[in-house]
Amino acid sequence: MTSPPMDNTQPDSQRTGSLVGAGVARETLSRQTAQALITSILLGHFRPGEPLPSSGDLARRFEVSRPVIREAFKILATLGMIETRQGRVSRVSEPSAWRDLSPEILAARLEVGVDDGILKESLELRRVIETEAAALASERATDDDIAAMRQQLDALDGVGGDPQAYAAQDVAFHDAVLRATHNRLFLQLIDSMRELLMFVRRVSITASADRIPTSREGHRALFEAITARSPETARRAMSDHLAWAERVNVSEYRTDRTAPRAP
Prior knowledge:
mainly alpha; single chain; disordered N terminus; Arc Repressor Mutant, subunit A; Four Helix Bundle (Hemerythrin (Met), subunit A); 2 domains; two-stranded antiparallel sheet; 2% strand
């Protein structure tokens, strides 16, 4: 029995010597293609409510097979970015349906230039949660909690000017503060937001390395307020730190992106 002809671009099975390898290659291609489609949607190449091109057209555009496009569509549907129905054209969903906290969408936003709206909303969310968490931490932190925060604070000082390493330690310090509240729901909520928090910190820190010293000062003021066992001072220190972050993430970031570049 002869095998049916391959699809128009048919690269998937030819890139590997086994069926298992073909499956892995197709999955990788599907995710890469899905990421390219997400980027295209964010750039406005495909607008909400508009139908996407056929799988054949997209296969030719991205130089992959139709099965890869179908798998990519499944990924986008899971992220809420497209609506697919059997026998009907797939359409781009309204942004309100998108899973904005997903790593795939956040990564694409970093690539194409971050939407000011998502930055502002993320800071509002952090302010609601973390300002009160700082006050609770000042009341509930144990000696072990204080030691953990001090360790992360020292780690922030130790990374020098490496923005990526600093962003990771930044998240770890705030995690230590949240753990000091001894409120399990805080931790679960923040864990679900981890990709968003890393995303925001990368924007603020990598936009300009000279912002790292100001960030360090904010963390140290917060730590000192918590160790002083002053809920109001801790609340204010966190609020001041997040207010600075909002200026960096929204106002200054917008200015940085719109400023004319030197030839």
